[in-house]
Amino acid sequence: MNTLKSRLKDFKLSGIYGSVEERINFANEKSLSYTQFLELLLDDEYRNRLDNGFKKRYAKAKLPAHKTIEDFNFSFQPSIDKKVINDLLTGSFINEKKNAVFIGNPGTGKTHLSIAIAIGALKKGFKVLFTPVSEMLHNLNASKADNSYWQKVAYYLSFDLLVLDELGFRKLPSYSADDFFEIISKVYEKSSVIITTNKSFEQWSDIFSDSILAAAILDRIVHYSTVVKINGPSYRAKNLKRKEG
Question: Can you give the pLDDT at residue 113?
Answer without folding.
Answer: 98
